[in-house]
Specification:
Helix content: 40-55%
Shape: globular
Number of helices: 9
CATH architecture of the largest domain: Orthogonal Bundle
Keywords: DNA-binding, Transcription, Transcription regulation
Distance between the termini: 46 Å
Strand order of the largest sheet: 1-2
CATH class of the largest domain: Mainly Alpha
Organism: Actinocrispum wychmicini
Number of domains: 2
Structural class: mainly alpha
InterPro entries: Sig_transdc_resp-reg_C-effctor, Tscrpt_reg_LuxR_C, WH-like_DNA-bd_sf
Number of strands: 4
GO molecular function: DNA binding
Low-confidence stretches: 4-10, 172-180
Largest sheet: 2 strands, antiparallel
CATH topology of the largest domain: Arc Repressor Mutant, subunit A
GO biological process, one term: regulation of DNA-templated transcription
Mean pLDDT: 82
Length: 180
């Protein structure tokens, strides 16, 4: 269906499908059209369309270059706010976008990946191996994360990240636990 915003046509999908896509995206660090397509059982074109709508809402980044994966820009703790805003505005982001203040551009995809591994208790060597980085690069990412989140050390970093909703609920089973 075609809707208009600021007098310009905007292609958008049904709001419930967009809300489901937002919920899925918020549970991840990055999301690709293939992941979204598989999760929502929609065709790849529809998944791209959904990601474009989520980019207008600033829930995910705009696609760049040849990569189809999008960085998730809002932490999972804001899911209720995101769902409420999308629903209240019938899927079309107003100006100003009420979700803009919730974005966290300070953490890169690499930072989020390192943070996820830190939360799992991985050492720098394990993180470097898993992410195909050098240990020095991992050390640098940890230092940047500590600086950006005002954390004293790795343990405090994970605690602060959980407090700010940058990591999944610590009481839920981790992927590592599921594999064992």
């Amino acid at each position: 269906m075609t809707k208009t915003t600021a007098g310009l046509p905007v292609e958008t999908l049904d709001v419930p499908l967009l809300v489901d896509a937002a919920r899925f995206a918020l549970s991840r660090v990055t999301v690709s059209p293939q992941q979204l397509s598989a999760h929502l059982l929609v065709d790849p074109y529809t998944a791209l369309w959904l990601l474009d709508d989520l980019a207008r809402w600033r829930v995910v980044s705009v696609a760049r270059g040849g990569s189809s994966a999008r960085q998730v820009l809002i932490i999972p703790a804001h899911e209720t706010t995101v769902v409420s805003a999308i629903t209240r505005h019938a899927g079309i982001p107003p100006t100003p976008n009420p979700l803009e203040p919730l974005t966290h551009p300070g953490l890169t995809v690499q930072h989020r990946a390192v943070l996820d591994h830190l939360a799992e208790g991985d050492s720098n060597r394990e993180i470097a191996t898993a992410l195909h980085l050098s240990r020095d690069t991992v050390r640098t990412h940890v230092a940047h994360l500590c600086e950006r989140l005002s954390a004293r050390n790795r343990t405090h970093l994970v605690t602060v990240a959980h407090t700010h909703g940058l990591l999944p609920n610590p009481h839920l089973m981790s992927e590592k636990d599921e594999r064992e």
